[in-house]
Amino acid sequence: MLSKGNSNPEICAGNLLKTQRGEVPLDRIKGILSSSIDKPAPVAAAEIAEDTEWMLGAYEPRVRVDDVDVTQDADQVGCYVINAKVTTKEATSS
Fold first, then answer.
1. How much is the pLDDT for 48?
2. What is the pLDDT at residue 37?
3. 87 three-state secondary structure
4. In this predicted structure, what is the pLDDT of residue 59?
5. 3-state DSSP call for residue 2?
6. What are the mean pLDDT values of the chain's consecutive 10-residue runs (94 residues total)?
7. How many CB atoms lie within 10 A of CB 33?
8. How far apart, in Å, are the Cα atoms of 18 and each of 34, 43, 90, 92, 93?
9. DSSP one-letter code for 90
10. What is the rounded CA–CA span in Å between residue 48 and residue 80?
């Protein structure tokens, strides 16, 4: 947790990207799906990107997902790096 700025939509989206599915006790579907890790890299990357877009849309509605890039980590075998480009949605007043 940060001492300030915890309500910033970009920070919240970043925190969601660091959460693995099943890690949150009372919300087991929050987080990134990890069952794709054992699949071939192109299939896994596509599934992780699709799941990431869904998860950010479901759990952080204040941002619009512009792009999700999933690449294999060059330093660790079997690990993926997920980068999501998000834009804060403008608040509309009723």
1. 92
2. 79
3. strand
4. 93
5. coil
6. 74 91 91 86 91 94 93 81 89 50
7. 18
8. 12, 21, 25, 29, 31
9. P
10. 9
Rg (CA), the chain: 14
Count CB-CB contacts under 10 A for residue 84. Answer: 21
Query: How far apart are the C-alpha atoms of 55 and 31, rounded to whole Å?
Result: 7
For 17-85, the DSSP string reads: HTPBTT-STT-TT-SB--GGGGS-HHHHHHHHHHHHHHHHHHH-TTEEEEEEEEEE-SSSTT-EEEEEE
pTM of the model: 0.81
Tokens of 49: 């990107």
